[in-house]
Amino acid sequence: MSNRVMTREQSIEYLLGRSQRHGDTFPIRREFIQARVEGLFGEPTTEPGPLSKLLRAPHALELLLLVHGVTTGGDFGVTERSQLWARAAGIYMLPDRNASVAVSRQWQHLEKLGLIKRQQHGRFKRIIKLRECGLVGGKISAPYTAPTGAKSDVYFRVPFAYWREGWHQKLDMPGKAVLLAAMSRRRETFTLPQDTRGARALGLGRHTVTRGIEELLRHELLVKTGTDEVVNARTKGGYESVHTYQLAKPFNINLSNSEIERLNAERTEIELTEAERLEAKYQTFEEVVLLAPGGNAGRKARQPG
With a threshold of 0.70, does the pTM exceed it? Predict the structure, then answer.
């Protein structure tokens, strides 16, 4: 029996390798960040998604992301040893029974939130992912289905580079939470509300959002692009100026169809404007040549009548 133990990186790569996903990305519904619910009078509104309940459970979040990355079909379940999960999530590195206890606590937390369920599978536990909204009405967890991308089923993609480039270790929980929230926006340029009300809509505290933004800026995963005016009835004028941001590689991969259409229209307009400018410049150049002393117009003017 070998005494060698897989490293955390090797454990993660083993799990990612068995997923056989094309493009090395996996989907997560936006409702994991921000859930759509009915308001007091039946109007559509939003409330914090399950992510808000994982801010103090970093290992549970890592396990959940790995499960979503690995499972692709069937019952959307995966069966592996507790020691492998413990190493991959950075919970416990030694190959002994303590790993089972440590991982079991994290699975239990996710199970209480309605994000997974466990089934006995021989000597191991099979982890089956449930829908990202978690408990509905505090009672029912919906079975997982592949997201469709419809208006009521919006999702974003998380790249395997999150692990392969080491961001699971470089980022703290505020950075991870804001990164997921930013990807869920599905726009090239977006705002990240740092006021109390806006942060709560994401299920995050105001200080968490601020710290997360600072962390992503420091790692150059987030780039400031300018400012924008947004409605804020609580200000004297009804508007406030907020920073706009863009995600950098490898996380700038989520654009909605409407955003793609908008960007294509902008590029087409820019190309047409540039083509018109060049055409006008060329025509001006031709006129200068024709009017010059050595030009055709100049020669014609010097010819005897």
Answer: yes
Bridge partner list, 47: 35
For 235-256, write each residue's pLDDT tens digit.
767 777 889 999 999 999 999 8
Q: Which of the four pLDDT bands, split at 50, 70 and 90, describes residue 304?
A: low
CA distance 156 to 172: 21
CA distance 213 to 239: 22
**Two structure tokens written together for 250:** 């490898």
Mean pLDDT, residues 12-37 taken together = 92
pLDDT in tens, 170-220: 999 999 999 999 999 999 999 998 888 888 877 788 999 999 999 999 999
Residue 160: closest CA among 59, 9, 33: 9
Cα–Cα distances in angstroms (integers) from residue 6 to residues 10, 84, 98, in the given order? 6, 8, 16
- Tokens representing residue 18 in the block: 């068995």
- By C-alpha distance, which of 203, 204, 198 is closest to 231? 198
> Residue holding tokens 């995600």?
247
